[in-house]
Specification:
Length: about 290
Amino acid sequence: MVNLNSIWHDFYNSLLSALKTIGPADFIDWLVVAFLIYHAVFLVRETRAMQLVKGIVAISVMSVLSNWLGMNTLKFALENILRSGVLLIAILFQPELRRALEQMGRSKIAGGITGILAADQTESEAESAEALINILCESVEHLSSEKTGALIVIEREIKLGEIINTGTVTDSKPSVELIEHLFFKNSPLHDGAMIIRAGRIYAAGCYLPLSEKEIARELGTRHRAGLGMSEVSDAIIIIVSEETGAISAAVESALKRRLSPEELQGLLSKNLLKQGDNKNEKKPKFRRAKQ
């Protein structure tokens, strides 16, 4: 028969011995581990991986209980499962681990460590960015009024070479006419995403990763692809619904819906125009498309 008093006495003595050895470094160690666990859970909580996490936690608890209760056969089986747990996690959680590393890479802390923080824009760069914003807003307004579906990805610090390789490289100067032509329903590239790189239409017809998050039922594959792209990069994604003509934008894993052309212009200006020391910078003006 299992002596519960003996087990509790051993546990109590072990706990006291451990508490006597605790120092300031241990508290820091616990805080770091707690921080990592919190963000790991936050990362997978809205994905299918959360169910796997629950399974691993259940196995760990059963392993501890089997050790306390002297259930040697069960303990042996569970310990062997947990022993290969690291490799199992790496295989099963590959998409989540990749996304976590990508998010760490584009964080402000990582940017400061690697010294890749963006500098202020020159006047010519700011003017080019303003011109691009106006072209995009005018094009999106046209596409929205005609209910022509569109998916536009604006590359920023994180390079999208893998995404570009799935489409057709155009490397063209942006214009309202070209953007509307590429998304015209009979165009061979209209179903994919357009990639804007360095102020130019660099590629079209590209395939984007789909988000696993739950989104509104009325939203289609374009919105899921735009949100998925924002989850693995710092890009700004503009989406025009083919069904309703509604304008949306995906930024930093968040989907902003039902934007007006003016609201889209404000969002793009906020994210694409770096604020320098020049206090006389002019705010870009949106040119409303002619009816």
